[in-house]
Amino acid sequence: MSPPSPSPGSTTGTSTPPAPTHVAMHPALLLIGMVLVGLNLRPALSSVAPVLGPLCADLGLSAAAAGLLTTLPVLCLGLAAPLAPRLARSRGPELTVFLVLFLLAGGLLLRTVGGVPGLFAGTLLAGAGIGIIGVLLPGIVKRDFAHKPGAVTGLYTMALSLGAAIGAGVSEPLRLAADGRWQPALGFWAIPAVVAALVWALQLRRGSHALGRRGHTVRGLWNDPLAWQVTAYMGLQSSLAYCVFGWLPTILVDRGYSAQSAGYLMSVSILVQLITAFAGPWLATRGRDQRSTIALMAVLTAAGLLGCLYAPQEQTLLWAVVLGLGQGGNFSVALTLLVLRAGDSHIAAHLSGMAQGVGYTVAALGPFAIGLLHQFTGSWDGLGWLFGLICLATLAAGMGAGRKLHVGAVSEPVQ
Fold first, then answer.
1. Residues in CB range of 276: below 8 A, 6 or more apart
2. Mind telling me which residue stretches traverse the membrane in this protein (predicted)?
3. In a domain, 164, yes or no
């Protein structure tokens, strides 16, 4: 039976998480698998923006339709997230991740064929695959690396950031190399997804130890205020991230940059996330709680966004770097909170499903709102207010989620 979770309001500073006792394979193999999987969870999102202009021109998409295209995968992340714990209980997380990687690859290929219907259907499948995998990995971290969650979460988040940076920086050169066709530039990303699946297949030998296969149930999570604060923080910081993924290159092109330069600037912004993707969890687990780290990342994100929008062009690279540092830390700390706020691996998996399910559904409104705002105003002038409000809300949610507490949920085996 899993140990009972602390009651609401209890602190975590007096207990030391137990070392994992049932890792069936060498932890290094699991880490390598997690890194390769993480590398494939963002190119599907970040690769579209650099080629969005040619794509819309080829398919005749309006600004509102483009906003829907950038919103759809984020929405699918949220809608598919609740499926993850159910799939883990029936198949185990290792087999689920393996199968869903092929779903991701299929979606990436589908969006390059069949015109507009294929584009949106493939985007839907890819987003659903990313949502399911993203929910399962924090539970695996809590189960197998409970003694060092910050370092492992940081490594995994670095892989996510690196994948996003590669997707943003390589898509436009791929399009140019393919005689200006956007389809090969987007379809290419199915290849690394299949490679990750083949490497992850090494984890399938762990079937008897699969997270959730023992039939645990979690009670009290959806009524817990701290769980909702973690969810709000995850969703709001994600909304800012997907606004950048979906629209920053287009905004920069309208400010006078070439499409390739805009893609490189976004790639640089995402690439520097590697720094805070690793440093953020390290800082967050070294202080009294996570609130000071959350405040620092919120300030960096707000400053970077406003700088990219309004600062002189010669300063855009600087503000893109500041933005990347803030967003890398925001996301890595949000993932770390899914582990730190949970009493055991089963609660962590369900908290991850709640935070990412609800959070990403809310986050999807951000990119769509930008598309509507731009279509109706014809400019980007109102984005500063929108970004500022989201940043303030993110900070407020983070101040609650960053307290050193456990969510008031109980994990029990099903009889």
1. 297, 324, 325, 326, 328, 329, 332
2. 23-41, 61-83, 95-113, 119-141, 153-174, 186-205, 226-249, 261-282, 294-312, 318-340, 347-370, 382-401
3. yes
